[in-house]
Specification:
By secondary structure, this protein is an alpha/beta fold. Helices cover 52% and strands 15% of the residues.
Length: 157
Amino acid sequence: MPTSSPNVRARILYMEDDATSALLFRRRLERDGYHVDIAVDGEAGLALLADAAYDLVALDYHMPKLDGLGVLQVLAGQIDTPPVIMITSENDTQTVLEAMRLGAYDYLIKAPNSGHLLLLPGVIERSLAKRRLEVEQRRTIEELHTQNREIWRSSTA
């Protein structure tokens, strides 16, 4: 995992064009020990993601230049991207399904009095745990392939 400081639980990149939403997100998560960087749109977020290692990406749906689904489409074509959580006021089933199809780990609706900020730490921890399991599963499969090749080589020698 990219987290380098023992005092930081995880490095999170939040792509959000609304300054108030971004500030509330940052304050909520920094209280819980996360490091949060903010990008004001999808293009800026992808640039930050290319320059630094993040444990998780959270993104808004409606953003200038490149929206949340556009970011997910770009990330879907890359290898070993961090888990992504869509956080948006868009409560449309088609948007939710498309986000999940493109690889979003979770989808939170932000609405007045929705409590989404209270749900964030749990959603983030579940997403990070899922990613750790995926990485461990890939590592185990690679080790099994290596062992199988060694067994095959030794049996044919």
